[in-house]
Structure to design on (163 residues):
């Protein structure tokens, strides 16, 4: 198997983030583009605040569109936010010749989610991947007070792109 661009963080996520992050409204534009390429994830309009190899942080504003009947942020919007955070952490850490797909996700809800939320996820890629390696990544979602409102655990199956 030939590895091309095998160093971490040189995939499309990091390339586009590095082009956008310091532009006026660049983070906003990156977030819009992410929602365009991943339409369902774009439905919650999360804003990407930071990406570096193996790390992602996003914000989610409390709006009517993401609320439930209890006047808090909907459980599935929280899972969606956690999935985006884990996916960006993963895709910012693997090389351009790799791909991944979500195979399992679960959430632990700890407190009603209200107000501005911040989700963050970290991932350290192993030195050597086998093909179809399961990777578990945790995202923590915090409210403005710094309280954890939800923990999302995602398992991504990562391997090499087929030639």
């Amino acid at each position: 198997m030939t590895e091309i661009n095998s160093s971490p963080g040189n995939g499309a996520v990091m390339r586009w983030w590095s082009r956008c992050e310091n532009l006026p409204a660049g983070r906003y534009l990156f977030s819009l583009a992410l929602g365009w390429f991943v339409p369902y994830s774009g439905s919650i309009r999360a804003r990407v605040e930071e990406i570096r190899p193996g790390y992602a942080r996003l914000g989610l504003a409390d709006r009517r569109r993401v609320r439930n009947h209890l006047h808090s942020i909907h459980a599935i919007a929280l899972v969606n936010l956690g999935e985006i955070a884990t996916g960006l952490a993963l895709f910012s850490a693997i090389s351009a010749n790799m791909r991944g797909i979500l195979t399992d996700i679960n959430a632990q809800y700890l407190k009603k989610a209200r107000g501005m939320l911040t989700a963050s996820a970290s991932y350290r890629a192993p030195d050597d991947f086998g093909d179809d390696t399961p990777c578990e990544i945790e995202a923590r979602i915090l409210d403005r007070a710094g309280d954890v409102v939800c923990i999302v655990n995602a398992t991504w199956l990562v391997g090499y792109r087929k030639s």
